[in-house]
Structure formats: structure tokens, C-alpha cells
Amino acid sequence: MFLIYCPHCEELREEEEFHPKGQAHIVRPADPEACSDEEWGDYLFFRDNPRGIHHELWVHAVGCRKFFNVTRNTVSYEILETYKIGEPPRITAESLASDEVQGKVQVASSGQQTVGATNATVETVKGEKA
Amino acid sequence: MQRYSGFGLAKHALSHHENWERQWRNPTPKKQYDVIIVGGGGHGLATAYYLAKEHGITNVAVVEKGWLGGGNTARNTTIVRSNYLWDEAAALYEHAMKLWEGLSQDLNYNVMFSQRGVMNLAHTLQDMRDVQRRVNANRLNGIDSVVLTPEEIQEIVPIMDCSKNARYPILGASWQPRAGVARHDAVAWGYARAADALGVDLLQNTEVTGFKIRDGRVYGVHTNRGDIEAKTVGCVAAGNSGVLAKMAGFRLPLESHPLQALVSEPLKPVLDTVVMSNHVHGYISQTDKGDLVIGAGIDGYNGYGQRGSYPTVEHTLQAIVEMFPIFSRVRMNRQWGGIVDTCPDACPILSATPVKGLFFNCGWGTGGFKATPGSGHVFAWTLAKNQAHPLAAPFSIDRFHTGALVDEHGAAGVAH
């Protein structure tokens, strides 16, 4: 069970209130009619699907019903931050890799599924840390 | 290869079954092969077997990062059926079904294929229309399929709540008598043993870390045990296909999700068929050992962790108990997740890629096990002849640009 911090409600809520909606930051082509079949197919269907840091869209379906973004590790499932639509992620695969080299960030050991149980994790989820 | 038979069993009994020969070798990787298969699950091993058997290409390596059949082959709910809606998908899955029917004899390995029938329930009027449409489509494609009434369902599965008072009353079902279950591990082991006997090298604990590509053409792979060269490379890596595609420099229209399943404590025989319900989201069968095998829908988020969230399990069990009140006090023994590579149209990708000589067989999503023999058979053909098998042609990756999708979300069932 994830505990997800909704940046609109500003509360940690249980996973069942939310729905994942796939990869975030996909920009709809400004002029779809001008797209080639390749560009349109890529926009509709092709995804990054990374093993590791993933920026994804979630909706607080039975809460405020608003959309927001989550940065999550797809192997450990740890939620690193949540942020509103239109904001850039603070944590990316690149930033994490460089921080790891400097020993700033501890990546959760795999096997951790539940997020948000401790204050330290809550801070991470809110994006105040790291 | 030591052939298995009743006589052999009796002979080995005399020496207390201590002298059975190993089922396959554990070879050292050669520098070069004709074909490399990346991924030693059911589909990969089947591909290697049919390459050797049907096309005489025996200089083949199957490169597996863990152990044979340790991924989704070991994690599925073993259901085999072919009642898909569209002609292209039905042809592919029915091709697999026909191979299933002779598989134990072909491999000289008991895969315990049991054609006990699969039932897809309908709980709403729209469900009923979908069932009727699919059954009609199946019959036009020569696939056995019938519509059942609630009375007929009750006769086949007496323990199911078919009353009108249920929260989601059962209005009918589609029924494929030839469908059933098979022993998942035995499928991987049977293909591995038969492929090994034909000269295929099964390289376990060998992880592909990159592709050797020159001028847009693949000529080998980097592994943790050194480089291996081959002009043709087939990737059959299920949930990790996206990771391999990234190594090769392109993207796939796939998302990897956790798909969970669970088994109960062993019970006396109580359910002799497979029951699936799209509407309330659950499917169930009983193994020969007596465990109830229960499957669920995918977890909606991307995940490579081979586990999912508890609410998904709870949701599935709610559906199962709703249909089978008799199971409300059954205790669950084990629960696990696999990584399924879901495609936007719930159909697989059997295709050439932007890199010449590199082929992908992926995107089977939640329903790959049933297709194991057919997938391997047509993919071997594709690799051997360097062109798509007629049954594989509609499943080219190009379809996501041309728009010729094969939308099987209905027939793919509960898991999507």
C-alpha cells in the first residue's frame, strides 16, 4: 500500500484513493494535423518505461479529483516526491545519480514497499529533502 | 537424450531413482552462434527448440540472466485458451492451442496439459452481448466456443453462486471446452531439455548488458560472461523488453506492470474447470495438488519489482468470494507478482526492429503463457527466414504508426 502525498490536498492519503495515469510530461503536439504517422504514433503509444526513476501522472480520483505528478522508483517503488502539474521534478535519474556519487542521497533498499511510515520519508515525499 | 517412458520409470526404480541423467547441460558460452535468444523463459526456450527442430539451426544460444523459466513462466496462473475476438489474434492463439494438444508427446515431457474448459462469465446485458459476439467470432474461426445459460453454468460449477440475488448476478458465460491449464514449469523444462538435446546452448546466469551494433546492424551481445557474437538476435524478455530496447537505442509501445496471483492451502477437489470474470475482476482454478490458483488485474502503476499492492489482492478476493461464498474461509498460502509488458492494444509484438538482425517478441502482457508454443513456433520461423511469419505479420511494431491495431482488450480478459 502506498501512502501518497497529494500536493493539492496537502495530505498523505492511501493508494486506493488514487489512480496512476502513466508517464508524465508528455507534450501533446501543438498541431496534430501536421504530425506524420510516426510522430503521432510515438505521441500516442510509445513510452519510456524505465527501470528506475519514473515521472508519472496520478489522479486523486476519490479525493480532490485533481491530477499531479509523482517521481517514483519503479524497482523499489519508493515515492521520492509529488508535485503539481506544470512544475518540473526536483529529483531526476540524473540528479540522483550525481547526488549518489557525492553521498547525499540514500536510495531505499529494494524490498521496501510501504512509503510514508516515518517522518523522514514524509519529508522526502513532500520534496523538502534531497 | 534419455527418453522418458513407463519402462524407464520401472528400470530406474530398481536403482532408487538415483541415476537419472541431467535434463540439460550447463555449457560455457562459445564466441559465436548463428542465433542468440535473449531470455530463457517459456517463449525463449520454445523459440530455440523450434529453430533447431523445424529449421535445422542448432548453433543457438539462449542467454538467461537468472535461471530457466524463473520469470513470468513461473509466476502465471497457467491458463491456456484461444477464444480471442479478432481473426489475427485468434489465428495466433489457436495455432498455439493446436501445438499444446500434442506438446507432451512432441517434447517427451509431461506438461500436464489438462483441457478442463475455461468459462468467461457475463454479469450485465452488455457482457452478454460481448460474450455472444465473441463466441460467434470464435466459431467462424473454427474455435470451439459456446454460450452457456446460468442453469448450464450451475451444472458445470455447482459451488458457484448463480442465484438471482447475487450482487452481480451471473447472466451467462462463454465456454471453451478445449481450453484448460498446463504445468507451467514443466513447459519451460520440457522445451529446455528438448532444445538442449538438439544442440542448443542454454546459458544461465548470463545477463545481457548491451548490444553490439555497427551500421544499424546487430552482430552480437555484451554479457557479464563476455561478448557473444551472432548475426541474428531475438529478444524474448517479457517485462524487461523495454530495458533491452533502450540498450539497442529505440523505444517500444510497452509499459511494465506488476501482475499478482495467489494460491490457497490445498483443498479436496472442488473445482474442475477454470472460471474467469471480467466484470467482477477475478479468475480461479484448482491445481491437481488441490490449491486454488487465483489471479487478479494488473496494478495500474509501472513496476519492475515483481510485487504489487495489497488493495489489488483484496479486490480480487472480494470478487472470488462474491462468486464462490464457499471459499470465504479458505486461507491463502502464497502471493507473488510478475512483471508483464502490456501493449496499448493488448496484443503482442512479434517484429523486426529499427536495428537489422534484431527481433523482438514481447508485449504479451498478461496472457503470454497460453501462447508459449505458438509464440516460439512463429518467432523461430521469423528468425530463421528473416521475415515475419504470416501469423506474426499483423503483430509488427509498425502497427502503432499505421494504426492497424488488433484491439483484444475484451478477450484478453480480466487482467487488463
TrEMBL record, chain A:
Gene Ontology MF terms in the entry = sarcosine oxidase activity
The UniProt regions of compositional bias labelled Polar residues, in chain numbering, are 110-122
An example of a Pfam family matching this protein is: SoxD
Region Disordered, as annotated, extends over 110-130
Give GO BP annotations, semicolon-separated.
tetrahydrofolate metabolic process
What domain of life is recorded for the organism? Answer: Bacteria
Q: Which InterPro entries match?
A: SoxD, SoxD_sf
Question: What name does this protein carry?
Answer: Sarcosine oxidase subunit delta
Automatic annotation (TrEMBL), chain B:
Is Nucleotide-binding among this UniProt entry's keywords?
A: yes
**EC number(s) stated in the UniProt entry for this protein:** 1.5.3.24
Known cofactor(s): FMN; FAD
User: Which Pfam family is an annotated match for this chain, by its short name?
Assistant: DAO
Q: Which UniProt keywords apply?
A: Cytoplasm, FAD, Flavoprotein, FMN, Nucleotide-binding, Oxidoreductase
Query: Where in the sequence is the signal peptide annotated?
Result: none
GO biological process annotations for this chain's record?
tetrahydrofolate metabolic process
State the PROSITE patterns in the record: RHODANESE_3
| Chief location bin | cytoplasm
Q: Where in the cell is it found?
A: Cytoplasm
Q: Which residues form a coiled coil?
A: none
Please provide, in alphabetical order, the Gene Ontology terms of the cellular component aspect for this entry. Answer: cytoplasm
The record lists the catalysed reaction(s) as: sarcosine + (6S)-5,6,7,8-tetrahydrofolate + O2 = (6R)-5,10-methylene-5,6,7,8-tetrahydrofolate + glycine + H2O2; sarcosine + O2 + H2O = formaldehyde + glycine + H2O2
The record's family statement is: Belongs to the SoxB family.
Question: What is the recorded name of this protein?
Answer: Sarcosine oxidase subunit beta
Please tell me the species this chain comes from: Billgrantia kenyensis
